[in-house]
């Protein structure tokens, strides 16, 4: 029997986080578009995209499964939304901006129950402080390839942890899914978990 839970994501980080808590699920990357709409707040943005990603997969006719999870992660610095860098130059600009200061990582999640039509969604924020980074460190970090597909051009679960002097809030939220909040929402929608 196919798994009833579907992760609508191409992110290996999200897959690993759900595996970490013992869940069995299908992984189907979403094809939802990721544009910022004029006037929407960062919180509204990540929640909308999370819902779009989950709904896009849930609405496909040939897909089995009952519950669909979508998520989106952005970095907020100086009220500016920093997504995934388009190239190495942009990665360097982002890392220089984050150097020596605090930023916010905002992840949205959405869980949709296709059987009952019920859904839960929310934006969760984590505060992260970076120590000062030299240009040499930034260039060496970019050369590792790690920043390429990460919001804010770093990975807290990788080498990027060396830049983090302090964090306040959920760690898994920075990696890509706020597991504490998400699992509460999953329970409310009837998904059985070990705890
Ligand atoms: C800040 C940070 C982000 N990230 C990653 C998580 C996400 O994969 C990515 C943000 O991009 P997203 O657009 O949220 O996700 P995605 O395109 O990788 O996958 P999908 O839309 O299919 O779910 O940044 C880390 O892995 N570690 C970090 O420390």
Automatic annotation (TrEMBL):
Coiled coil: none annotated. The keyword tRNA processing does not apply. Its EC number is 3.6.1.9. Its main location: cytoplasm. It catalyses: N(7)-methyl-GTP + H2O = N(7)-methyl-GMP + diphosphate + H(+); UTP + H2O = UMP + diphosphate + H(+); dTTP + H2O = dTMP + diphosphate + H(+). It is found in: Cytoplasm. Keywords: Cytoplasm, Hydrolase, Nucleotide metabolism. InterPro entries: ITPase-like_fam, Maf-like. One of its GO terms (cellular component) is cytoplasm. Belongs to the Maf family. YceF subfamily. Belongs to the Maf family. YhdE subfamily. Nucleoside triphosphate pyrophosphatase that hydrolyzes 7-methyl-GTP (m(7)GTP). May have a dual role in cell division arrest and in preventing the incorporation of modified nucleotides into cellular nucleic acids. Nucleoside triphosphate pyrophosphatase that hydrolyzes dTTP and UTP. May have a dual role in cell division arrest and in preventing the incorporation of modified nucleotides into cellular nucleic acids. This is dTTP/UTP pyrophosphatase. It comes from Desulfuromusa kysingii.
């Amino acid at each position: 029997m196919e798994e009833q839970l579907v992760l609508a994501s191409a992110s290996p980080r999200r897959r690993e986080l759900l595996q970490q808590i013992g869940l069995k699920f299908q992984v189907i990357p979403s094809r939802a578009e990721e544009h910022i709409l004029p006037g929407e707040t960062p919180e509204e943005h990540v929640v909308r995209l999370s819902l779009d990603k989950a709904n896009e997969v849930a609405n496909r006719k040939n897909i089995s499964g009952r519950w669909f999870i979508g998520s989106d992660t952005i970095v907020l610095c100086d009220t500016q939304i920093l997504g995934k860098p388009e190239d190495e130059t942009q990665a360097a600009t982002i890392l220089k901006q984050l150097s020596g200061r605090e930023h916010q990582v905002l992840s949205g999640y959405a869980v949709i129950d296709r059987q009952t039509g019920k859904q839960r969604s929310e934006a969760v924020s984590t505060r992260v402080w970076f120590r000062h980074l030299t240009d040499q460190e930034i260039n060496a970090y970019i050369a590792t390839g790690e920043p390429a597909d990460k919001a804010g051009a770093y990975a807290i679960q990788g080498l990027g942890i060396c830049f983090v002097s302090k964090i306040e809030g959920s760690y898994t939220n920075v990696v890509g899914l706020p597991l504490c909040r998400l699992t509460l929402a999953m329970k409310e929608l009837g998904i059985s978990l070990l705890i």
